[in-house]
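Worked example 2:
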Amino acid sequence: MIAIVVGTHGNLSKELLKASEMIIGQQHNVEAVTFQLGESIEDLTLRYEETLSNLDTSEGVLFIVDLFGGSPYNAASLVAIKQEKMDIITGVNLPMLIKAFVSRKTSSLEEVIKASEISGREGIKQFKENFSLVEEEEL
């Protein structure tokens, strides 16, 4: 099973992991890593490396982080660039994370990334736009 590391500014990663587990149950081979005010990229890079040493990375690693170009992304890129079976996706949200957890059991790293990106985008909806579509379908 592909290992997943969720990295975000503040405690968002921990809370997203908790929320996803409320929906789909406890997850294994996953860690939430936080980047706190006053920490450096070097601190975070070391924490990522330490985290990876506690995971089964034999089938690959997916870092799911909050912002492209942010510190969690930059530190993950320093780790992932050295490894063939590691990659990063940005813009973490709950639909993306749930899709990654569900699909990583039977899919390749590339397939998990693609499915997670699609699910993350499709999880963004505007209420009134979708509400009016439902009303039209009922007519």
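The chain has a mean pLDDT of 94. Residues 109-122 form the longest helix (14 residues).
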